[in-house]
Amino acid sequence: EKRTKIQEVLAREPIGEELTLMGWVRTKRASKNVAFIALNDGSTINNIQVVADVEQFGEEVLKKVTTGASIAATGKLVASQGAGQSCELIAESIEVFGEADPEKYPLQPKKHSLEFLREIAHLRLRTNTFSAIMRVRHSMAFAVHQFFNDKGFFYINTPIITSSDAEGAGEAFKVTNFELDAIPRNEEGGVDFKKDFFEKEANLTVSGQLEGELAAMALAEIYTFGPTFRAENSNTTRHLAEFWMIEPEMAFYDLKDNMDLAEEMLKYLVKYALDNCADDLAFLEKRAEEEDKNKPQTERAEMTLTERLKFVLENDFERVTYTEAIEILKRSKPNQKKKFQYLIEEWGADLQSEHERFLVEKHFKKPVILYNYPRDIKAFYMRQNDDGKTVGAMDILFPGIGEIIGGSQREERMDKLTERMKAMGIPVEEMSWYMDTRRFGSVPHSGYGLGFERMIQFVTGMGNIRDVIPFPRTPGNCEF
Ligand code: ATP
Ligand code: MG
Ligand code: MG
Ligand code: MG
222 and 248 in contact (C-beta within 8 Å)? Predict the structure, then answer.
């Protein structure tokens, strides 16, 4: 049977047409003569009302039409008298696909906590909040491809299983094909990877960058958009063990070109959301405001969702060196509000999210691009500056989130790169495949990584990164 999506019906309002709608019942109100069924099919945040004549359908059918049940309703679309809806379907036939015991159905028509919903992976997606987030997530993914495609970038898939650890942070998950009870040992008692499937230590990728660089040195402008894995042993609201990353890599780009592209992309994505996800964003904004009412004054958001999106769209991002930022953080210490009390910083330290948010929300009141970080807190591949202390790194900082993008100009000079790798104890010989990029026709190049979930967090206003991915992977949780 042909199904019409509720989204399409509400957009087009084909009054008088005969339609079949299929979806899940949100609520049913029955009077003596008619039943009003609020139906949702996931295509939009809005429900449509299906009106069923009690006498015509009889108790037998209508008692199966309960909250959570899935049905098909065929009938004629008519203009609605009721407030808040423009049209409704007068049912001529109703088919119940799957019943849902109203006593047992976990989604009662009350508000559930996000923590509770995380425990019911399937039905979580059926709530207004999560279906709205997932539609926004879809639109953002689409917009990413659109943005890069319009710019002539090529979408490249980098491997998920790899032997490299681009970030060198020791957060890579190991991949092995050993039987657990028969791990082959070498003479020193260590694991003998030569006997494993890849004959080499393998892990899940922490970043597609190194392979992305190879592609950029051939196709000039590429991007990856794939899953990334990090054994983040911390429970924060902005880290997942499995997340998606967008990583463009560009030959012939210096650090400034890199910043320009990143800023343009972020604004494009925000604008795309405003233009294409209005209903879902309006719902999420209202939701965030209601949540806020239950919080103590000091923890409430200073901007509404729309204001935050405009904050990104309408401001030139402030470009500040790491060294200047440290000076600001040091100076700002005495007049601290409680929210930002740990501002003591020394040159050389990595910034915590609260330092990042202080710079954005309190000091500059703009999105911030911090660049030229100390060499010693950044990865080996970043381009060394002439001061001998800093590298051409850049992080983009957003309100409510902190770091949303990390990027850099890459070290394209073979001698400098080799020297740095040796100093950091990275086996240069084993990375010959990577060194080839500097060996033959090396060029200045740059790139960055955008954490897709952090972007969705920003756009939807969700406080916890676990709530913007359908199936979050965090310490102790890989079941659903
Ligand atoms: P953080 O300082 O927050 O741990 P990072 O500096 O380790 O992030 P990068 O290696 O720079 O992260 O990765 C690029 C981007 O990927 C980050 O700017 C962020 O948006 C995202 N990201 C990094 N780690 C995670 C994670 N565990 N979960 C979700 N997104 C992440
Ligand atoms: Mg990290
Ligand atoms: Mg960081
Ligand atoms: Mg980073």
Answer: yes
**Is 461 touching ligand 1 by the criterion CB < 6 Å?**
no
Q: Find the CATH number of the domain harbouring 219.
A: 3.30.930.10
**Tens digit of each residue's pLDDT, the chain (480 residues):** 699 999 999 999 999 999 999 999 999 998 899 999 999 999 999 999 999 999 999 988 999 999 999 999 999 999 998 777 899 999 999 999 999 998 888 887 777 899 999 999 889 999 999 999 999 999 999 999 999 999 999 999 999 999 988 788 889 999 988 777 778 888 888 888 888 889 888 999 999 999 999 999 999 999 999 999 999 988 899 999 999 999 999 999 999 999 999 999 999 999 999 999 999 999 999 999 998 888 888 778 889 999 999 999 999 999 999 999 999 988 886 555 555 655 666 899 999 888 999 999 999 999 999 999 999 999 999 999 999 999 999 999 999 999 999 999 999 999 999 999 999 999 999 999 999 999 999 999 999 999 999 999 999 999 999 999 999 999 999 988
CA dihedral angle for residue 84, residue 85, residue 90, residue 91, rounded to 10 degrees: -90
CA 35 to CA 293: how far, in whole Å?
35
Packing angle between helix 278-293 and helix 255-276, nearest 10 degrees? 90
Question: What is the 228 CA–ligand 1 centroid distance (Å)?
Answer: 10
Clarify whether residues 38 and 146 are in a common domain.
no
- Regarding whether 97 and 241 lie in a shared domain, the answer is no
361 lines ligand 1 (CB under 6 A): no
Look up the domain containing 73 and give its range: 6-105
Q: Are residues 419 and 367 in the same domain?
A: yes
Atom 1 of ligand 1: nearest residue by CA position? 403
Last residue of a domain, one of 105, 134, 149: 105
The domain total for the chain is 2
